[in-house]
Amino acid sequence: MTTAINDKVILQNGVAMPWLGLGVFQVEDGSVVVNSVKDAIKNGYRSIDTAAIYDNEAGVGQGIREAIAEHGVTREKLFITSKVWNADLGYESTLAAFETSLNKLGLDYLDLYLIHWPVEGKYKDAWRALETLYKQGRVKAIGVSNFHVHHLQDLMKDAEIMPMVDQVEYHPMLAQHELRAFTREHNIQLEAWSPLMQGQLLDHPVLSSIASKHGKSVAQVIIRWDLQNGVVTIPKSIKESRIIENGNVFDFELSADEMAQIDALNEDKRVGPDPDNFDF
């Protein structure tokens, strides 16, 4: 059981990845994202997740640099993720996109680089580029995002290096049972984006009842459910108080019955696009 904010899971290649991180999807570049990153690191977070399409990598990089200067955290203690966007999928274009992201972030390497969406006919060439970057030591771990089981199976048929992470939409309404079982079987770490279903679950009566029993918020219960299911999670917030709250999930444990109650909420309901049917 994870017991502290700096606890990590060991990926299949031996790299240690924090169980909890800060996501910055739709966080405005500039002072907003800079302060979010700094607040997270100040309060014990060591993992920051961004992407080229978020258009805030420069601010994330500035936040990292300022946090290192102000809070005595070394770069080596941080775990920074970015993703290659759909328009850049391809071998040479992915290599170029990686350089652009790295320059915007102002970093020498990434800890994790992901293919953002499984664009048919393109993700295998992009994966070869990620393998090249991994072999060069430019990135510590490589993986994918929004890949269903059949996407993973297709990629793995030709991959020289197996994906280490699959970051997907995951919350009590979308429990991803088949994908969880497959990734567990193949030692691919599942990671949750939109773990709070963009706030749609915060008034749910079952979750509210469980939260009240523990003296916790619904958000904290959902994050705890993620962690106890062995899923890395990256809740987003731009408010320091909420960032602190989201990280305060290591002093309680959900019972087997409570976990089952939350599991039973699954409706295979998405707030984001279906990876089998997206158009961007």
Automatic annotation (TrEMBL):
Q: Which residues form the NADP-dependent oxidoreductase domain?
A: 31-267
* Keyword terms: NADP, Oxidoreductase
This protein's record includes keyword Ribonucleoprotein = no
Gene3D superfamilies per UniProt: NADP-dependent oxidoreductase domain
Keyword field contains Oxidoreductase? yes
The Swiss-Prot or TrEMBL record annotates one GO molecular function as: oxidoreductase activity, acting on the CH-OH group of donors, NAD or NADP as acceptor
Site entry (Lowers pKa of active site Tyr), positions: K83
- Stored InterPro entries: AKR, AKR5G, Aldo/ket_reductase_CS, NAD(P)_OxRdtase_dom_sf, NADP_OxRdtase_dom
SUPFAM superfamilies named among the record's database cross-references:
NAD(P)-linked oxidoreductase
Q: Where does substrate bind?
A: H116
Q: Which PROSITE patterns match?
A: ALDOKETO_REDUCTASE_1, ALDOKETO_REDUCTASE_2, ALDOKETO_REDUCTASE_3
**Cited Pfam families:** Aldo_ket_red
Active-site residues, as the UniProt record annotates them: Y54 (proton donor)
Family (UniProt):
Belongs to the aldo/keto reductase family.
Its recorded name reads Aldo/keto reductase
Q: Which organism is it from?
A: Paenibacillus catalpae
